[in-house]
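User: For my dataset I need records formatted as: sequence, then structure tokens, nothing else. Please produce one.
Assistant:
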Amino acid sequence: MTLEKVTDPAEIPKRWYDDACGMAFALELIGERWAPLILRELMYGPRRFSEIRRGVPGISANVLTQRLEGLEAGGVLIRRKLPPPASVQVYELTPWGYESEAAMSALGRWAVRSPLHDPRLPLSGASLMMSFRTMLDPPRAEGLDLRIGFRIGEDAFDTHLHDNRFDVARAEPGMVDLMFRTNEARNIAAAVYAKQPLAMLQEAGALRIEGDQAMAERFVTLFPLPPKVG
């Protein structure tokens, strides 16, 4: 007599490819539409549902709920409740989920080599921070040790440029050497990636910079895009 294990279909993760390749399995974990952008929004700290949706404005509430549930089931993120006085539910990447940044950065660096990439399109504050961490050119940043704050709409980031790396935390900036204030992240991206002069952006009211203007001018040169293919 042979005994067979009967597995509840609900326990079987969805399979798209039936392929043992690690890349195929990665796509099963985070390859659904919007899922990588949700990871991007959570990369520098926990977020409420409404905050994630603000960073990914094209997603519907129903789809966001589905993606969050799928990423939680896959062990990529967790839900938790902040202690009082906030007492609200937030979503946060697991330690393993945070490890996905390296893969996402490598994919982003590969993709921007396409002539079809347009750095002038809208992007979230988290997207801008990830791009800085991805595109930082260590030789250009040699010897710099700067605390830099960013206020981008409702998002705040406290960053530290040091030892040829760019550390990012979602937090109100403390004592900083430079402070960038803008309503939209693409106003900063315009200076960094589209080479629009900082003075022009400031005169137009799109960007405010507090601190050493010369250092700000140097900062926006630290993130060169790789050459285009073809």
